[in-house]
Amino acid sequence: MRILILGGTQFLGRAIAAHAVGLGHTVTCAARGLSGVAPAGARLVAIDRNRPDGLAGLARERFDAAVDVARNPDEVRWALAALDGRVGHWTFVSTTSVYADTVTRGQRADTAPLLAPAEDGPYGAAKVACERAFGRDTLICRAGLIAGPGDPTGRFAYWIARLARGGEVLSPADPEDPVQLIDARDLAGWLVRATRAGLSGTFDAVAPASTRRGFLDRCAVALGRSYKVTWVDPAFLDRHGVARESGPFSLPLPLPDTIGDASRDVSPTLAAGLTVRPLEETARDALRWLEAGGGPVTGLTADEEAGLLAAWHAERGYRPTGP
Ligand SMILES: NC(=O)c1ccc[n+]([C@@H]2O[C@H](COP(=O)([O-])OP(=O)(O)OC[C@H]3O[C@@H](n4cnc5c(N)ncnc54)[C@H](OP(=O)(O)O)[C@@H]3O)[C@@H](O)[C@H]2O)c1
To answer: What are the helix (H) ranges across the chain?
Structure first.
C-alpha cells in the first residue's frame, strides 16, 4: 500500500511509519522536519501545515491510506481539502482527552459524552473539532497515555527513571486506582493492520487498566530494582503545589479528578485487533532508551521528591531510625 503519514518525524507517527515500512509498504511522511527525521525506508516530503496551501508538496500524489496526528482543526481541514479524492482511507489519531466526564470509570468510546468542540483549544476540545472534520468512513483512534522509547512527553519515562534509582518512591495514593497506557509500537501495529483492513469507527486506543500498585511493581521487577513505595494523599500533593501530569514539579499519574481517563473499557478495541505487549517489555525498552541518552524525563527531581517525602513523614510524626 502507499501510506501517507501527516507527521511521522517523531514518536507515534514515526512508529507507524517504521512499522509500515517493515511490512513492505511504500511510506511517505509529510512534515517540516523540525521534530526529527522520517524512519529509514520512508520518504520525507516537506510541508507546512501552518499555511492553507502548505501541502503543495503533495500535489497530484495518490495514497491508499493516510494517518493524521494533527491537533489543530484548521490544519485538518486544509489537509482534507488539499488531498480531496486522493486518499483511499483516513485514520485520525485523537485522544481520550476529548471526553467530558473525567471521573466515571469504565466508560466506552461509543457512549461517553464529549467536550464541546473548540477551534483554538484547549487540547481535548480542539481534538473534538478535528474529529468532526473527517468523514464517516474514517478510523478515529482516541489514544490514551502513549509510552515507550521515543516519548517526547517524559511521563512514562518519569516512573522508569524513578524506579531505576530504587529506594523510597513517592506515589499518589490510592494503590488500587487505575493506570492505563499503550506502547507506541502496539498502537502503531494496530493502526497499520486496521488501515489495511479499511476499519472505520471510533475506538479508544489504550491497553486494559492495571492498578497503580501493579504498574509500579511490574515495572520495578522488570527493571530488576527493589523499591519501597510511600502512598501520599493527593490532597497533600495539591497543598504542596505539585502539578498534574507533566512539567516541572509534577507527578505524571492521574489523580481522582481524572481517573476516568485511566480506566476506559477497551473491549471493542481489543475485539477490533489491538494487541498489547507485556508492560515489562515497555519498561525495559524505555530504560534502555533512557540509558542510551533518550529523554526527556518530566516530573519531580530527586531532591524535590525527597523534600516532599520528608514533609509527608513530618506531618505524621514519623522519625527515621537512621541508616
Ligand atoms: N503522547 C501521548 O501520550 C498522547 C496521548 C493521547 C493522544 N496523543 C495523540 O497522539 C498523537 C501523537 O503523535 P506523534 O507522537 O506523532 O507526535 P506529535 O507531537 O503529535 O507530532 C506532530 C507531528 O506533526 C508534525 N508537525 C507539527 N507541526 C507541523 C506543521 N506546522 N507542519 C507540518 N508538520 C507539522 C511534526 O513534525 P515536524 O515538527 O518535523 O514538522 C510531527 O511529526 C497526536 O495526535 C496526539 O494528539 C498523544
So the answer is: 11-22, 73-82, 123-133, 155-165, 184-197, 212-223, 234-239, 267-271, 279-291, 302-315
Ligand 1 pocket test, pick from 5, 12, 72, 269 with the greatest ligand atom count within 8 Å of Cβ, gives: 12
Answering whether pTM is above 0.85, one says: yes
Task: Report, as an integer, the average pLDDT of 76-82.
Answer: 97
298 domain residue, yes or no: yes
Confidence class for position 319, pLDDT limits 50, 70, 90:
low
Q: What is the mean pLDDT of residues 275-285?
A: 98
Q: Structural domain of residue 45, as residue ranges?
A: 2-146+182-205
- 160 with 147: CB under 8 angstroms? no
- Tell me, in angstroms, the distance from the centre of ligand 1 to residue 208's CA: 24
Pocket test residue of 9, 53, 153 for ligand 1, highest count of atoms within 8 A of CB? 9
Residue 239 maps to which CATH number?
A: 3.90.25
Q: Indicate which CATH number applies to the domain containing 140.
A: 3.40.50.720
pLDDT (0 to 100) of residue 194: 98
Indicate whether 83 and 194 sit together in one domain. yes
